[in-house]
Every structure is written in C-alpha cells, then in structure tokens.
Protein 1
Amino acid sequence: MELWKYIGRRLIQIAIIFFVIITVLFLLFRLAPGDPVSRMVDPDMTPEDAEHLISQLGLDKPLGMQYLYYLKNFFTGNFGESFHYGQPVIDIIGSRLPNTILLFTSAIILAALVGIFLGKIASWHKGETTDTVMTIGALVTHTVFLPWLGLILIWVFAYKMNWFPITGMLSEEVWLDPDAGFFTKVLDVLHHMILPLTTLFLIHFGSYLLLMRSSMLETLKEDYILTGRAKGLPEKIIRNHHAAPNAALPVVTSVGLSLAFSINGGALTETVFTWPGIGRELVMSVSQNDYPLAQACFLLIAIVVLISNLVVDTLYAYLDPRIRY
Amino acid sequence: MKTDIETPRKAHLKKFPWMDRLRRGWAIYKQNLLGKIGLSLLVMFALMALCSFIPPLIDKMYQPMTGVDPEITRSTGPSLRHWLGTDFMGRDILSQLLAGARVAFLVGVSAAFMSIVMGTAIGMVAGYMGRFVDTVLMRLADMIMVMPTMLVVLMIAALFGQLTIWTIVLIIALFRWPGVSRVIRAQTLSLKHRPFIEAARVAGASHLRIIFRHIMPNVLPLSFLYMTFRVTSAIIIEAALAFLGFGDPSTVSWGMMLQWVWKTGHMFKAPYWLLPPGICISLITLAFYMLGRAMDEVLDPRLRKEAGSD
Amino acid sequence: MALLDVENLSIGYHTQKGYLHAVGGVSFSLEEGKSLGFVGESGCGKTTLGMALMRLLPPNGVIRDGRILLDGVDLLQKSDEEMREIRWQKIAMIFQAAMNALNPVHRVHEQIAEALLTHNASLDKREAYEQVEALFQLVGIPKDRMQDYPHQYSGGMKQRAIIAMALACKPSLIIADEPTTALDVIVQDQILKEIINLQKEFGISMIFISHDIAIVADVCHDIGIMYAGNLVELGSREAVFNNPMHPYTKALLSSYPTLTGEKSRLMPIPGETPNLIHPPSGCRFCDRCPAAKATCKTGEAVWVKISPDHKALCYQCGADCRNE
C-alpha cells in the first residue's frame, strides 16, 4: 500500500499549494486598484440584490472576516453570478469543465503515446532517413507557434477543404434534432474535435518523441541490455521489453513537468477553435471584466493542473518499481 | 627559468579562466550543425531587428503602428510599394515584421535575463544556506512552477488593467525563475563542500562574499545556458498574450500582428499577412532551441560526439 | 578434445583516436570441468577476451584474427541467429553484481524465467517458474524473495541471482567477469565457495576473470596472466604460484601482501601500461621489466615451456629465459 501513502502525501501537498493560491488571489482582488465590490457585484444589479449579494459575500466586513467568507463560499461552490451570462458561475464552469478535460486529456495522452512509440523507433534507426525525418518533424512541430498552427489548420482544412467545421464543439442541427441518436451526437463532437486535437497533439508530441529517442539511446547502453544480449534474447525483445519501459520513465516525468505549459496551450487552442472549455472561458471573461467568472475559471484551472500533476506522479510511481516498493 | 615567476601568458589565463573556457567552448560549438543553423537564424533576426529603424526613415507611411499610406486604406497583397502587403489599416506589414523582431529580442532577452538573475541568486542562497531557507525557497519555487504563466498574466491583466510591455516582461520573469533556481541550487550544493569553499570560510569570508566571489563564477556558465531556454518561453508567452489581445497596445509584436489578422477577419483572405508573423515566431523559437541544444553539448561533455576509448 | 580451444585470437576496437589493439594473439584450451582464471590489471584485455568468447563485443569491436572452437565448432563462423541460440545454452556469463545487470523494472524471477523460455519453446510459464524456484534454492536465496525487484536485493543476493540466472540453461561453460568485486569480503568469500561448489557439482567449465590474483588462485585450476593485451604466462595454479617465470607475474605476486610466509617488502610495479593504439614493438612489458634486455624489443615472441602445464611468453631468446 505504499502507493496509497504516496498519493496521500501528495494530496496534502496539493491542498497546501491550492490554499496558498486561493489566498494570493483573494489578496490580489482586494489590493488591485479600483473598488473590490464592483468586482464581485454586477453593476447592473438592482440595489436590493446588490445589498443581498454584498452581505452574502461578506464584502461589508473587515478583511479577516472577508477571507473566511471567501473560503466558505469557495467550499460551498458559491462563486457568485457571472456578469456576462447572468447565471451562477458554478453552473457555467460545471458545463465547461468536461469539454476541456475531453480535449486536453485526449491530446496529451495521444501525444505521449505516439511520441514514445515514434521516439523508440527513431532511436532504432539512428542516423538513417527515418530518424532524420522524425527528428526534424518533431523539432518543427514542437517549435511552431500554437495559435498560428491552429489558424493555419482552420484555413486549410476547414475553410479551403471544408472537411471540418470552423468553430465550436457541436453542430446545432445535430444536437437540436430530437431524432438524432447518441452515437450521431458523439460522432459530431469528434468531428469538431479533430482539428483542435491535432493542434494540441502536434505541439506536444515532438518534445516527447525527442526525449524518448535520447532516453532510448542512453538506456541501450545500460548493463542489463548487455545481459539481455548475453541471454540470447532477440533484439526486438530487448528493445521493447527491456529498454523501452525504462526509457519511457523520463518522458512520463516530462509530461508532468510541462503541464503548466500544456495548459497554456490548451487555453489557446480552445480560444482559436471556439471550443467551449474553461480556458476559453477564462480568456473571454477577463476581456469582458466578468470577475466572478474569471476568478472561478482560474481557480478551476489551477485545480486541474494540480490534479493532473498528481495523476502523472502516481503513474510514474506505478511504473517505476523502485518508487513503489 | 624560475618556476615561481609566471610567464605573462599564463598570468593572463589565470586571471580569466573563463576566457580560456570560452575559446574551447566555441571550438566545440562550431562543430555542431544545429548550433550553426540556430546561430545563423538568430543573426538573421537580429539583423531584422536592427533594420526595423530603416523603413520609417524612408517614408513616414512605413511606420509600423501609425503609418498611413494615403493611397491604401485596406489590406492589400505584396507590391513594389509594400513588399509584404498592407494590413487592414493600410500599414506596411514588412515594417511591422521588422519591428516585431525588435520587440521579440527585447522581451526575450530581458525576461530571460531577469529570471536568470533572480533564479541564480535564489538558487545560490537556497543551496548555500540549506535547511529552513532552502526548504522555504524551494517550496515557493514548486508552487510557482505549477502555475501556467500566461493565465496568471491574464488574471493580473484582469485586475490591473492593460499591461505595458515591461510589466509583462517582469511577470514572465517572476514565473520563470524557479526552473533556473533548481539547477543552480543543485550546482551550489555540489560546490558547497569543495575544499576551496572551506578554505574561504576558514579564512573568515562572510557568507555573502563566499556566495558572490566564489560560488557565482562557477555557477554562471550554467545560468547562461538556461538563459537560452528561458528566452524562447518568454517570447512565446508574450506572443500568446498579444494574440489574445492582452499585449501592450503601443508595441507591435508578432503576436499582435496575428491578433489583428485574426480579429479583423482577414485570416482566410490574406496569407501574406497571416504567414510571416507566425513563421517568424516559430523560427525564432526553433533558433533558440537549437542554440540551447548546441550549448548543452558544450557544457556537458558526455553529449559530445568525440568519444574517448574506454 | 578440450571443451574450448582458442587459437591466436586478436581483438581490437575502432576508436576516434585510432585502432586499439586490445587483445593480441591469445591461445589457450580449457578442458571440461576445469576452471581457468585470467588475471591482469585494468585495460589488459581480460574482459574484452571474455566478451569476445560470447561474441558480445560492442559495435566498434572487431575480432581480427583467430578461432574460437567450442566442442570443435568455430564460433566465429556462426551467424547472428546461431550465436543467439548458443548464448546462454552453451556459454553463459556471470556479471558483477555492482553492475546494473538486472533490469530494474522487471521482477527477478521473470528475468531468469525469460532465459529458460527463450531457449526452450516447449516450456510453459509455470514450469519455468518452478525451475527458477529450484535454482534459487541452489544458490541460497529464500523462496519468498523470488518475486522481488532487483533494487530490493542486497549486493550478495544480486550476485546469487545472477549466478542462478547463468545456471538456468545448464551451460557447459560459464564466464565469470569479476563476480565478487564490490562485495564486502565476507560475502565475497561465501560467493566464491558457492561458485566452487556449483562448478564441482555440475562439472561446468569456467573462465574466471579478475584483477585479484588471490581470488583466482583460490578458485581456478589454471591461471593465465594477461598484460597489455597479451597472454604472458599460462599454467596450473601451483606451477604459476610456486614458480612464476614471467617478470610481470613475479612483480604481480610480490605486489601482494600475504599473511603467511616470510616478511617481504611490497613491490609496486613502476611505470604505466603502454598505449594500445600504438603498441610498442616487441615485448609490451619491456619498459617496466627489471630483466629487460635489448633483444626484448626486437625479438620474436616465443612460448617457453617450463613444464608440461606451464609456459611463459618471452621475447629474449629461449635459453636465456629458462635460466632467468
């Protein structure tokens, strides 16, 4: 049960970090120029509603009390009402979160799997054309500017070729049609998801490929590989069964370390493709001065990053027996 | 010949050991293809940046932000007058591109430099002081590393209004130092127990003096290596922010150009406008990446192609 | 017929600085059930020799000359596929425990079973694990540690596991490359006794490689002394120990402290090993040899037979050497 203890410890760490983030955010909101009240209360509200909200959020109390109110509201899911949508923030972010998770996790997992697989192959053919092509491809896709890549993909495949829709996650016709089955709806979402997924995927898989490649080359120099050869194992088994599992470990670590960077990319992708996720919501709410929504989106993204870190770390601990035992 | 008198050449080397290392490093660097390509690309961009001052001098209409061509008020394709065409307000795209190069270097180098300074200082102090100071600083670093920089800047923009380019640079630096500090800290830890540090301590040097006089020179080369990686991420973050509309409206950056092309609906109609800024951002990222990899080889002997027999 | 006959083996490495003559013209035979130890300082080529016997040289290594006859069959003529089958079934290797010889992400018993399953297609997993269990018992590792990962083992246990793995396919020859280096002396002693027992019990021939002549003398019937890629003395352990002929052997023995016998000064060997990329002509030990003569550099290599089972390499003319 070492694994559970490990997860437990990390959860506590995450809780602490998150606590710090909340507090910093709280302070920032209060310290920023302008009237903090106007940040939480929609200026278009009626005075009575505004009064009610102010007392509910504790904005008329001293700073210490405000902080407690703030925490209480956070844990009860009360983030106030969005200025822009006029709905409770919690509903909005609740509906956006699954979309982000769908897009983001599929892209990262796919990128990791493909990157590891191709990196492994590239290392086998080191110096040959296959390797050069893959390395250059990885290098190029890794350094391309993400939003620009998205725009180019839209231009070529959506606008010119008309293979994919230009924006959004759903087609109205499909989702409003009472006869449309579940499967049709799923296909529709997937159809919309291909371009944004490709963008996020391309940006990430390159770095995993390059890392796996150099990791494999290093691993193949290890002593246990010599043992494998001495035992008379076929080369394929040595590479796949002995070298690859060890070589993949640093790549898993790298996925975890670059999660913050990946989330940036996720938000950009959502914005370019008008994918209704949390990242895009954050960007939009900031430009519309919708403070309650912006704040909640930010906190939610922070949680997503922290939990993702935990997931990756746990995966690593599971894959590397030296940590598990 | 008396052995206690150093020859002038030797004395020169002793004074600047890093110069000798620089020369050797350059020799290794030259052999690396990636490094050469990266460096040439960077030189090209540097030239672009330098040339950005030229177009406005030729004619006022070539001003990137405020240039007004009396004959053109919409986006047009490449022509003799405007080699890359004009944007939706009739401004010359090429001068914008050149100005963008200037901004990119400015942002990249300043943000990287600031984060290096912060990261090195904090890393050295954490590694040298150890225990409580170390734990606190590294926990802080952990927390900062978890945050997606661009989104943090967004939040700050939300609260404090439109940000100037220098504020953006500062915030980027504030969020990038943890990576540097980790490496510097590790290096400091390994240096801490070396005899020459012990000797300095015994001789009565204060902690500050030890850190800056003895540890820092040994740690700086590593700092500069990491600077190359930091530059790329700073440029990308600024570009992304500008793209989303949160950049400094008074500076023309490549990200800003992309924002204009996108928001004004010219995405599908003006490839001459859409392509150049994106290509530039991508290429400069590539260039710095190659530079970083080549420098990696210089600093880490194990990565070099020359293998000794063993 | 001897189990192993090596004739005039020459091995080298292609390096950036040139071709390194790692092993030059080595010949020896090994009978069934006997053990032969190769002793020498680092860089003398003993490990290269061991690797070459299994044709496990790194990509830049080449066998330039010679024959390796295992049961009369020249291994150097075998294809890669054929070698793969011969490895572990006919010849196995025991590596240093200090090395990362076991894959850290797989359980130990799986790795040993893998050897069995690779060479015996008709075996199923359960039977393989049963055999692994028997092997563990043989080398003295508790059964309940079978499913552990390598990092959970102590150094001694790892060495035993490696020995068990080498015995898995019942090879006729085992090459042990510094199997007790980096173990503490008590464990070292235990492992050595194990190895001797196993060798006697199963009648396995063994080639033992070490820089420690004391260990080799303990374990092996015959000893070969290597210097700078050459085999300079070869004979039974009694012969070599009691009557060392080559100046290097003598120097080696006198640089070792002994608990018994007369008190004598420790004599380190002055100088350094020669550069093997540009090896000196003539005897390679010449520059450090107390008995060097002018003819050493120009003379031909001659195997001087001191007794039927003892010979030494010398470049001076034969008669002189015998008289020393």
Protein 2
Amino acid sequence: MSFDLPASIERDLERYAQAEHITPAEAVVKFVQSGLKSNKRKAATSQPSETDWDKLQIIDPGFAFFEKMPDQLIDTIESTSRRIRTERLSARA
Amino acid sequence: MRKALLDTSTYLDLRRAGKSRRQLWAQNTLRHAIAYRDEYPKLTISAYTVFEALEGIYRDAIPGADEEFITKVLPGFEIVYPDQKVLALGAKINATLAVGRQSIGIVDALIAATAIHHDLTLVMANTRHFPRVIAAGFPLTLTNWREA
C-alpha cells in the first residue's frame, strides 16, 4: 500500500520521526496503529442505542415469559444453578 | 464467529442486561448477543441449563409457569441434550480433574464435554471453573460475553 499524505502532515511526521529517532515510515505506522487503537476503544465504550436494547425481545426467547414473572425467579434460578454445580455426590451406605 | 453454547450464567446475564443498561458487562453482553444472532437464528443452550431453569421455576412454585416455559420458551432455543459420547467425555474430564485435585463438579464437566463434542464455543461468566478443563489438556474454547 502507498498513500499520498498532505504536505502539512508529512512535515509533522518528519518532525515526530526526528524527535523519536525513528524513520518517517515507522512514524507513519505508529500513528496509524494509534488511530486504530483509539477507534477500537471508542467502539468498545460507546453505549448501545435504545434500538439495540429493544433487540433483547427478539434475541431472548424467554423475554416475554420472564417479564411477567416475579424478579426473584431469576435469582432463584441463579442460586439453583450455583447449588447444583457445587453439589458433591456422597457414597451410598 | 463459531457457533456457541450459552451457559446458564450467560443466559441469566442476558436476562438481567436490560435492567443494568449502565453497566459495561450488560452492554458487552448485549453487543455480543446481537452480533451472534446476526449469524445464528437461535441461541443454543444445554439440557443442564433447562434443568436449572425448571428447578428454579418449581422452587418458586409459580402456577402454570413450568408449562408455559416448556411449551412457549424452550422451542425458541436450540437445546443440546447429552448422548453417550458426551457422557463419556464428561466422565473423562471429571476423572482427570478429580485426580489432579482440580474438580469443577459433574454438571460443569458435562457442559464442557457438550461444548467440546459438538464443536461449540462455551460462553460463560464462570471464569473460575472452566479454564481448568483447558489446563488439563481438553480442547475447550471459552468466551465471556461480559468482556468487550
């Protein structure tokens, strides 16, 4: 890949490369990597929209069922699951 | 994205995510679930998750809830039931971990076996138990939807 950079950016990159004692090509790579990382962080921290949350109704087959159940049912299922998974079988007499 | 087996902990996270919208784990869980459902028509759970959900329903003794859960909710999932090969692999995992004093319990061993046998990524929030299966040399693939 090759790119044409605006002259002003090219000058900034050369100055940065000199200051960091790296080649201009390495400076370009550093800037691109930094930009991509920042973009990834932004994507990871952006909050889902209302439309996204509404999708839970489609994604979860139990959505309508659990919505009309008491909230404690989910807690009961969770504690049941935890108990089942920590049960140890004991030898029969 | 590989097809996934949702453990009970992740399904419960999905249930609670809507009421915890400000929490990062809830947002991450939602994002993963949306991305997954874009590729796969149904969420896949194991028979053990069905068992745990039904036991919870019976413990709370909500009239008619068991029938509605069985007839209206469960058909919306793909459910993986254990067969002889899963039971054998589960026994092998359980024995290997027990000998190494790293037991994770029979149910978790069977869930790990289900994921391995059916070539599914196990999606779980129990980060304490399942990594032991991998450490013991079994080809289990794990992911946690709470993380980005």
